[in-house]
Amino acid sequence: MLRTIVGSAMLATTLSAGAAFAAETKPTIILVHGAFADGSSWNGVIAKLEKDGYKVVAVANPLRSVRSDSAYVKRIVSGLDTPVVLVGHSYGGAVISEAATKDSKIKALVYVSAFAPDIGESSLALTGKFPGSTLPPTLDTPVELENGVKDLYIQQAKFHKQFAADVPEKAALAMAASQRPVTDVALGEAATNAGWKEIPSWSIYGSADKNIPPEAMKWMAERANAKDTVVVKGASHVVMVSHPDRVAKVIEEAAAAK
Asked: Residue span of the signal peptide, if any (predicted)?
């Protein structure tokens, strides 16, 4: 009998300690890049987050379709045993919005120069909702895939000015050469979920973004009731490359929120 009583007490203590540990566990930061970029675009942000004790996963976003890309992100989330902060750049914002369903692991969403579509909206439609995007004329000749689907790239000669104007030229040239294509289907696909309606969100973007009009990102952040919105003066579309500390700070703010 004594053994049973002691065992129960130990179990209660263990469960209590486990609950306390779970409450103190830092969330894993899931970084989802957008079109014309890759996981390396998060390198500066990753260095800061890891220095501050966060586990980070930079997803290799397939950039094929919102539905399949978000399903891929959800599978990564399902394999983790910690809370999660989902961070999306550009088209990656549409992916995290779609992926962020009623999963108790996902505690926050962070939109980095990103789309935050409502149900029925596409990245393409949101790009044109406000004037200012100069992306279409900079796109290269599409690569024809099966069933009429096209892969889209930015012309390398125009990449620096269009996509990463505040990044040193040498680095921008390397980004242009290694850019990942997105399908036209993905950019035109309507969202079927808007995770920001249920999960707290944060937003950061540059005032000199030429891909997504800053006015559009301001409007989306306000619609989502973002807990905080940071506008980096003069920053390009790749604010996480040119201002990694600013982006990491917003992510950590979201991760620490109760």
From this structure: 1-22
> What backbone torsions phi and psi does residue 144 show, to the nearest 5 degrees?
-75, 125
Give the residue numbers spanning the domain of 74.
25-256
The answer to whether residue 9 sits within a structural domain is: no
DSSP-derived pairing of the beta strands 150-152 and 182-183? antiparallel
pLDDT in tens, 80-121: 999 999 999 999 999 999 999 876 799 999 999 999 999 999
CATH number at residue 74: 3.40.50.1820
Q: Which residue matches tokens 């929120």?
A: 257
Q: Domains in the chain: how many in total?
A: 1
Mean pLDDT value across residues 148-176: 98
